[in-house]
Amino acid sequence: MKKTIALSAAIILTGTVMAQKKINQDSLVKEAAKTEFWEPVPKLVTPGKTNSDAPTDAIILYNGKDVSQWQKEKGGQPGWKIDKDGALTVVKGSGNIATKQGFGSCQLHIEWREPAAIAGASQTRGNSGVFFMGSYELQVLDSYNNPTYVNGQAGSIYKQHVPLVNACKKPGEWQSYDVIFTAPTFFSDGKLQSPARITVLHNGVLVQNNVEIKGHTEWIGQPKYTAHSDKEPLILQDHGLDGGNPISYRNIWIREL
Q1: Which residues, 6 or more positions from 137, have their beta carbon under 8 angstroms from its beta carbon?
Q2: pLDDT tens, 206-240?
Q3: Count of domains in the chain?
Q4: Which range is least confidently modeled, 37-41, 100-104, 152-156?
Q5: 135 & 230 share domain
């Protein structure tokens, strides 16, 4: 009889403890819910099969078939050529090319190849560049066993930020930049409100970590900001008749942020 009473008491006690635990858990769930957001639901984006493939919300700027998204920097048909393998190759002296569409803050994927036949040295060896908003240059250069000033080598923000490491591949091999660019903002009087910032992965290696861009890219003198619109073209550079061989681009896509 005593065993039965003791067992009943134990069951009641256990039930009471479990009920109390449930009350405590329900209370915690209610408290946690106060900091949960269910809307707006992020839109669905399907990624590419690989990290170099464009996701479904990307704008394809070059797919190896045509240059319909591009024009000369000052307007007109681009003077660059499409090779048999689909690469878009600079025609030296033909001039820079620019996107017809303007962009501000963005994610950019771009692949580039330095010429296998080496000509020139330092800044004349496969020189090009990616200009965000037509003003802020991410340097493209053959920096594989090619000494030059370090704030002008591949992966640098030209004349502003030295890359964290040199991640260049050998000439003739395809390379990639994956970039997060934050556009600058300006007050209504043209004064700078917030500077541009940029993060760069070169061949999957971090070389610029959310650095602050100091102003428009300058070859001579210090960079400074001049107010411009919220969206400007992306420009790819023809470094001109410098004695070096031309570089090539492929698989260029961009996501507006």
Answers
A1: 129, 130, 131, 157, 158, 217, 237
A2: 999 999 999 999 999 999 999 999 999 999 999 99
A3: 2
A4: 37-41
A5: yes
Determine phi and psi for 107, rounding to 5 degrees: -110, 125
Picking from 181, 191, 193, the residue whose alpha carbon sits closest to that of residue 231 is: 181
> What is the C-alpha to C-alpha distance for residues 60 and 89, in angstroms, rounded to an integer?
17
Six-digit token string for 3 = 């065993």
- For 153, residues 6+ apart whose C-beta sits below 8 A from its C-beta are 139, 141, 143, 146, 162, 163, 166
Domain membership flag for residue 45? no
Q: Is residue 249 part of a domain?
A: yes
CA-to-CA distance for 103 and 252, rounded, in angstroms?
Answer: 14
Distance separating alpha carbons of residues 238 and 231, to the nearest angstrom: 22
The model's pTM is 0.90
Q: Which domain holds residue 24?
A: 1-36
